[in-house]
Design goal:
rod-shaped, about 100 residues, mainly alpha
Length: about 100
Amino acid sequence: MDELTLNYHHLDEEEEALLKRMDLCNECIDILIEFISGKGDSIDFVTAEDIVTSIHQMNIDLSTELLHVRLEKGALRYKVNELKQNEAKQQLESEEVELISG
């Protein structure tokens, strides 16, 4: 179970890192949109749009990665709970045997 717990904590850290990266993408997009709105016709809008779209796509990719991390965490939570239930069941069974033998 220690390995499962370690894996879970690793996924927790990975989730946190992905959320921070997504926040940064959103901040960059907001900054770029503000920049674009202040420049008007003095910049090439298509290029600016391509840059913002690229960052947005990166955010989508990170979001997909986050989804997979959260799915993995859910599967690990299930395994940990299953192991805990089995351990509790075995403990009860061994106590019953001791009472019967005792």
